[in-house]
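Researcher: Sequence recovery benchmark, item below. Answer with residues only.
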């Protein structure tokens, strides 16, 4: 079977679009959350599903990638190629195009925050949210690219997964993953602050870390679920029913760490006609959509004061276009070098 003959690319496209929906509310200055937040009494919103869906899929695929890797340098090289080329380009474009939306008495090239924007954000963990004088009169003036906050958590998950490389006993690996899930689940519910100071020094929130880790590890656990199609369909129906019931009973915070990984991975592993062709047709545009949509929406709000619906209608196709360009011009080309270290290792043998 083709490695991309599944629904994961389609799901990632949906999750990226969900994030655009939620941001449309915040960036247009709406006084309330998105429609899903209103329907669930604030228990979840579209960006909640989008971000957590990304982390679940990432946990599943990254862990499978680790199991295939022959060395840690090979593992990290692939991860760096996936994250940094596209991120570096969007940061450079931001600094290059920011003068078009710059409002300050200080000349742009004399603004110190211009020169620290790329270096700080490329570290992932010491993020600089904005450039002084950019978008400061927008309804949401706190950030140029608010989507970037999750990337440091994503990379943290890569580091966590990579430590499993040193454990050769498969049964022990399973045990460690289960313990990671239980511990992150408990930390997410009770959110102790004993590591709060360390997290804050790196622009991390301990609550976010525990929460995203639990979904990421939930995706990892799904690599061990080997069932037939009939059983998977039953699990999908049961998980969806439990999710709906949990929202109705206001206990979703306790069950979502199980229901969402089951739903996302089982639906992703499936191969639905037409949906499974998204990756072949347009590529994996989700990362590009995710990192470009926020500044696109901020720019639209700067030039034209839009309501929430119009902001979404205009920004989504633009974000998909930028995501398409990012994948085909940057990300896909960068990934052509993913076996570079492996090739060098063969040559030196």
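Model:
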């Amino acid at each position: 079977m083709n490695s991309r003959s599944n629904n994961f690319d389609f799901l990632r496209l949906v999750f990226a679009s969900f994030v655009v929906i939620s941001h449309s509310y915040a960036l247009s200055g709406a006084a309330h959350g998105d429609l899903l937040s209103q329907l669930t009494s604030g228990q979840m919103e579209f960006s909640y599903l989008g971000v957590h869906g990304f982390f679940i899929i990432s946990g599943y695929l990254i862990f499978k990638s680790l199991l295939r890797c022959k060395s840690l340098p090979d593992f990290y090289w692939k991860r760096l190629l996936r994250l940094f080329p596209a991120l570096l380009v969007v940061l450079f474009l931001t600094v290059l195009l920011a003068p078009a939306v710059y409002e300050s008495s200080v000349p742009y090239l004399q603004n110190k925050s211009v020169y620290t924007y790329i270096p700080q954000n490329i570290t992932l963990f010491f993020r600089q949210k904005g450039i002084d004088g950019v978008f400061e009169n927008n309804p949401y003036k706190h950030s140029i690219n608010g989507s970037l906050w999750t990337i440091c958590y994503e990379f943290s998950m890569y580091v966590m997964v990579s430590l499993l490389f040193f454990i050769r006993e498969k049964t022990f690996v399973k045990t460690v993953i289960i313990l990671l899930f239980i511990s992150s689940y408990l930390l997410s519910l009770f959110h102790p602050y004993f590591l709060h100071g360390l997290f804050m020094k790196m622009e991390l929130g301990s609550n976010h870390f525990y929460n995203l880790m639990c979904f990421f590890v939930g995706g990892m656990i799904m690599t061990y679920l080997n069932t037939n199609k009939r059983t998977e369909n039953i699990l999908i129906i049961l998980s969806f029913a439990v999710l709906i019931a949990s929202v109705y009973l206001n206990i979703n915070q306790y069950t979502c760490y199980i229901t969402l990984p089951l739903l996302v991975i089982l639906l992703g592993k499936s191969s639905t006609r037409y949906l499974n062709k998204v990756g072949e047709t347009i590529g994996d545009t989700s990362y590009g959509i995710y990192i470009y949509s926020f500044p696109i929406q901020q720019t639209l709000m700067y030039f034209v004061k839009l309501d929430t619906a119009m902001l979404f209608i205009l920004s989504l196709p633009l974000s998909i276009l930028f995501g398409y360009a990012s994948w085909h011009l940057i990300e896909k080309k960068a990934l052509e070098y993913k076996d570079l270290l492996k090739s060098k290792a063969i040559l030196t043998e």
